């Protein structure tokens, strides 16, 4: 799933390649992708693209007086193409969900792999009209997100810290992969209750959030859209690396599986050397 660093890199890429271009056609190719009907997609045609903004994991492309907003969900992606086929694509064939054709040639596709179709596209007058954006918590790279603001989010929070970090209404932009990386960096169990952090632990976790995300954004800066997924994977230390040695201590990275996802962690670095069982059986490790 694209998370804050990859979406930020896509925002930068679109600012460089899309801004100033005229939208010729917008072709919806998957029934499930479009979540709004007023204004219609056709209202974007003939309009000039402006700056692209990021809201958590949402991209908001300014086109004329409107915004084309997308959430790439778990398996979605944006593919820029300098040249597009003159033959319009056929709806329902393959992963292609929506195509934006630009005047003068080129454009981009929104694609989604797999059978769970969650990629979402909205055409709105204001990005805040998108329910998912309106519900977002603070951006962890925003100027107001300091250590005290972070501590206030944890206060009284009785959920496990892994779930809190992933909750977009608490903090915008962090998903499964970077929450694993943040917790590993902070040397914290994913099952630790958020409200149980003391002052030193809170400070360490806040620093891990900032450093992990800023380093990932820096790695992704200037990387072409088509190579961002590989760049993300190359920078991960524990997520998706179950069975490999921890790069910090050499212990074996372990995994806890859930219904449709998993988390990865290092027992030595994060849980006092104790492996976690599955979510239902594990005892809370502090």
Short description:
The protein is α+β, with helices and mostly antiparallel strands and 286 residues long. The chain has eight helices and ten strands. The strands form three sheets. Strands 1-6-7-5 form a four-stranded antiparallel β-sheet, with no helix packed on it. A four-stranded antiparallel β-sheet has the order 2-3-4-8, with helices on one face.
What can you tell me about this protein's structure?
The protein is of the alpha+beta class and 286 residues long. Helices cover 27% and strands 20% of the residues. The strands form three sheets. A four-stranded antiparallel β-sheet has the order 1-6-7-5, with no helix packed on it. Helix 1 packs parallel to helix 6 (199-220) and helix 5 packs across helix 6 (199-220). Mean pLDDT is 92; it is low at 280-286.
């Amino acid at each position: 799933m694209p998370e804050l660093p990859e979406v930020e890199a896509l925002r930068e890429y679109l600012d460089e390649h899309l801004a100033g271009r005229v939208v010729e056609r917008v072709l919806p190719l998957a029934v499930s992708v479009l979540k709004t009907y007023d204004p219609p997609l056709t209202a974007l045609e003939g309009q000039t693209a402006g700056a692209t903004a990021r809201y958590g994991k949402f991209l908001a492309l300014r086109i004329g007086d409107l915004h084309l907003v997308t959430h790439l969900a778990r398996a979605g992606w944006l593919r820029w193409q300098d040249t597009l086929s003159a033959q319009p694509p056929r709806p329902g064939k393959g992963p292609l969900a929506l195509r934006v054709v630009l005047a003068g040639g080129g454009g981009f596709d929104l694609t989604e792999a797999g059978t769970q179709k969650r990629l979402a596209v909205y055409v709105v007058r204001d990005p805040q009209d998108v329910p998912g954006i309106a519900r977002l918590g603070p951006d962890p790279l925003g100027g107001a997100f300091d250590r005290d603001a972070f501590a206030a989010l944890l206060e009284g929070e009785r959920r496990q810290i892994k779930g809190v970090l992933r909750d977009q209404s608490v903090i915008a932009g962090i998903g499964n992969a970077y929450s694993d990386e943040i917790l590993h960096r902070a040397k914290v169990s994913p099952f630790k209750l958020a409200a149980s952090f003391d002052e030193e632990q809170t400070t360490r976790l806040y620093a891990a959030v900032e450093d992990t995300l800023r380093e990932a954004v820096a790695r992704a800066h200037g990387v072409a859209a088509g190579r961002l997924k590989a760049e993300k994977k190359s920078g991960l230390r524990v997520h998706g690396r179950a069975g490999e040695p921890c790069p910090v201590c050499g212990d074996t990275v372990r995994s806890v599986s859930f219904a449709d996802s998993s988390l990865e962690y290092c027992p030595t670095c994060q849980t006092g050397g104790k492996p976690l069982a599955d979510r239902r059986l594990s005892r809370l490790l502090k």
